[in-house]
Amino acid sequence: MNADHWDKQKTRTKNGQTTINFMFVVGIPCLPSASRRLNWRLSSRYQRNATGSWSLRKIRDGIPVDKEEKKYMVYFVKSDKSSVQYTDWVCAGALVSKLYIITAAACLEDVQYLYAVAGYTVLVEYENIDKDLCTKLYKRKVIYTCVPKAYEFDYANVEKWSAIDIGVAKVDSEFDFDKGDCSFRPQPIDINYDPKYQAAGVDAIVLGWGHKLIWKQPGDETRMVQKNLDYAPVSIINKNKCKDGYKEFPDLLAVIDKYMICTHGKGNLDIGGNIIATIKPDAEGCTNYENDHGGPLVTWIGGKEYLIGVASVFRVNNESKCEGPYLFTSTQCNGAFLNCVLNANDTRRADSICDLPARKRGFDMIHRYMSWAYQPYGRDVNEKMVLFPSQSFLIRKGLEVDGASAAIWQMSMDRMPSLLYRNQVAI
What mean pLDDT do residues 403-420 have? Predict the structure, then answer.
């Protein structure tokens, strides 16, 4: 996700200085612990420097993954032609099939053209993507995204966009390659749909490439991303206890109940899922951890890793430090949405919830198809140009080309737009 933004909340002025009781930053939420209340300071609301730099994600006190292969880990790199030009941009995800990645909806809504990198523990920034052999040869273009229709990307109202902050991205060709110049061969992770594996007391880990210590202040041009993948152990807490820290955001409380997982305090699992402690530490005062936006929250079921959530919102105090509880968007709570997107072509799903009208199934979806045909690196592997007497169409192989659901980009013969999108279609 692009670096940090904050939500305007209750402010007051004292001795010429503006203070904020709470401050949201896009990532995992942080707020004061119950043992002490801190003032959240900000010199001016929505502060950003002239170059558009925002602070970025981090895994506080993160531990290097080292030789442990997290084959499902993916990170996104913005294209140099993306209209959003942040100096820092970190967004992670989890590979759930050879073509599909689960991440945060905000990651997919904020930047138009994205590359996805899998099988590599080294974070390569966009200006070097064609210099590093792994990313040059094995990066993939994101050609399709789907987010819940209820998702509203509005930084000024965190309670809106954090409601269902989860999405799915599809790449133009499979992540199916041997290690080569990368770290390992990519391999999908299974998705959890069972509520008992996101219950209070469950241990998990978070993973990502963000920096380890503090939230970077607006205007700070220092690059703080970690070059290599880090992880941190976390523990899931009771939602009622989690909501105690969010009483001043009443609309967010229902969101936590319906869609979220809360973590706080150090967990008891190492990178391989082995127990590292026999007594759980008390949540208050423990070391806290956070993750790149969209990055996976993972636990072990029957000795196997499962994706249980993706990183969502975070908050910082006036010392530029993050304090829990932290929120992740749950895969189980959004299981119907994920199933409908990931199994759209499954003939066995006849008469399932996915085929009901949106008002009956309780959610809608926005499908977007991106054309790379007029980008510097050319069209993706599934695109071809079909010429007609009066107009031309760009048609994506394997999709219907008639009716409202057709993946067709129409253009005039006398001019070529630099950005071509399929119209948004709610299915």
Answer: 34
Distance of CA 421 to the CA centre of its chain: 22
Tokens encoding 267: 């967990």
Q: Please give the Cα distance from 109 to 254 (Å, whole number).
A: 23
- For 240, phi and psi rounded to 5 degrees? -65, -40
Closest CA to 242 of 328, 159, 308: 328
Cα separation, 182 vs 179, in Å, equals 5
Residue 135 dihedral angles phi and psi, to the nearest 5°: -70, -30
Burial of residue 413 (number of CB atoms within 10 Å: 0-12, 13-18, 19+): exposed
CA dist., res. 170 & res. 108, Å (int): 11
Please give the structure tokens belonging to residue 206. 């978070």
CA distances from 204 to 190, 245, 363 (A): 15, 21, 29
Angle in degrees, CA 175, 178, 180, rounded to 5:
115
What contacts 99, CB < 8 A, 6 or more positions away? 170, 171, 173, 174, 175
Q: Let me know: does 55 contact 3? Beta carbons within 8 Å.
A: yes
User: pTM score > 0.85 for this model?
Assistant: no
11-333 architecture in CATH?
Beta Barrel (2.40)
State the chain's mean pLDDT as an integer: 70
- d(CA 300, CA 268) in angstroms, rounded, equals 12
Specify the amino acid at residue 252.
Answer: L
Q: What is the pairing mode between strands 167-171 and 230-236?
A: unpaired
Q: Are 116 and 143 a contacting pair, CB within 8 Å? A: no
C-alpha 329/C-alpha 327 separation (Å) is 7
Provide the pLDDT confidence category of residue 315 given band limits of 50, 70 and 90. Answer: low
Is 296 in a helix, a strand, or coil? strand
Phi, psi for 226 (deg, rounded to 5):
-85, 140
Task: Say if residue 422's pLDDT is above 70.
Answer: no
Is 50 in contact with 338 (CB distance < 8 Å)?
A: no
Alpha carbons 60 and 394: distance in angstroms, whole number: 45
Domain boundaries, the chain: 11-333, 342-426
Q: How far is CA 363 from the centre of its chain?
A: 20
Residue 368 Cα to chain centre, angstroms: 17
- Residue 311, pLDDT above cutoff 80: yes
User: Both tokens of residue 237?
Assistant: 């807490």
